[in-house]
Amino acid sequence: MLASLFFRRKFFIFFKILYACFAVATSEIMPIENNYSKDIQDIIAKGKLIVAVLKIDNPPFFMSTPDGKLDGIDIELSEKIAKELGVTLEINRTAQTYDEVVNLVATGKADLGVSKLSYTDERAKKVLYTKPYATFRKAMLVNRLAYAGIKRTRQANSLSELFSQLDSKIGVVKKSSYVDFARNIFPNASIHEVENWDPIGIDSLLQGKILALFRDEIETRKFLLARPDANLKLLSLIIKSQQDSIRMVVPRNRLHFLLWINGFLETNQIQYDADMILKKNEKYLQKLNELQGTINHK
C-alpha cells in the first residue's frame, strides 16, 4: 500500500516536470500571444476577410466572368488585403445598391466595403472611410442638340449655373452618392433617380426624357468608347472643379483596421486615375472576350 502511494507520487512529480519542459519547448516555437490589435486579431481568428461588393457588375471595378469567377480592380485589391492578413477572402454580394454595401459594413455583416464607393457625409455617419485609392472627376452625358440649345438661351459661367434651372432634368442612379452630389452642384435643377445607368438612364437620355445623366468621367467615357455610334447624339462634359475620390469603408469601431488599410495603400502605392482605370477596362474586356471564346469552343 505504502509502496503503491510512493510510486504514484513519484510518477505525478515526473509528469509535472515533463509537462513543464514541454511547455517551455513549445513556447519557444509558438508565442503564447501576439501583439496584434483586437481589430486585426478578430479577422485572423475568424480566418477570413468578409468584403461587401455590389451585386450589379461594374467593370473594371468588379464583375463576374463567363466561368463564374470574380474579377476587377476592387476584387484584386481585396485579394491583396486578405493575403497580407493571412486569411481567405469571402465576397458578400447581397447588396443591391451602393448604400446597401455601406450598411452591410455598418451592421457588422462585412469587415470591409470595396465597391467603387464615393464619400458622402451621410455614409460617414455610419462607417469609417479609408484614404482614396482612385480619384477622377465628376461628369455629365448630355444630348448634343439640347446642350447647344440651352447654351444659346442661357447665360452662365459654369456647368453648375447652366444646368441649375427648374426645367433642367438631370438623371442620377438611385441610392448612389450622385443623388446628393447633383442636389449640391445643381441646386435648382430637377433631379430624377433612375434604376440603373444603362440601359434605363441611357435610354431616358436618348429619348429626351432627361437633359443629362450625371455621374463620373469613368462611366461617361467608358460608355462612349463602347458605343462609338452614340457620339453623334451624346457628349461627355467633364466638371473639372469637381473630383470624386473612391475609398473603402470599415466598421466605425475598427479604427486600427482603418489605419492599417491606409498604411497598406500607401506602402503599396495604390492610386488610380481615370486613364489608368480605362486602360485596365480595355484589358479586362479583352480578357473576358478571350475567356468567352474559350468557353464557347468547349
Topology of this protein?
Elements: H1 2-29, H2 38-46, E1 48-52, E2 63-64, E3 70-71, H3 73-85, E4 88-92, H4 98-106, E5 112-118, H5 121-124, E6 127-129, E7 134-143, H6 144-153, H7 159-163, E8 169-173, H8 177-185, E9 190-194, H9 197-206, E10 212-216, H10 217-226, E11 234-251, H11 255-267, H12 274-296
Parallel strand pairs: 1-4, 1-5, 8-9, 8-10
Antiparallel strand pairs: 2-3, 5-11, 6-11, 7-10, 7-11
Helix pairs in contact: 10-12
Descriptive overview:
By secondary structure, the chain is α/β, with parallel strands linked by helices. The protein is 48% helix and 22% strand. The protein has helices at residues 2-29, 38-46, 73-85, 98-106, 121-124, 144-153, 159-163, 177-185, 197-206, 217-226, 255-267, 274-296, and strands at residues 48-52, 63-64, 70-71, 88-92, 112-118, 127-129, 134-143, 169-173, 190-194, 212-216, 234-251. Strands 1, 4, 5, 6, 7, 8, 9, 10 and 11 form a nine-stranded mixed β-sheet that branches. It is globular. 33% of the residues are buried. Residues 14-20 and 22-33 have low confidence and may be disordered.
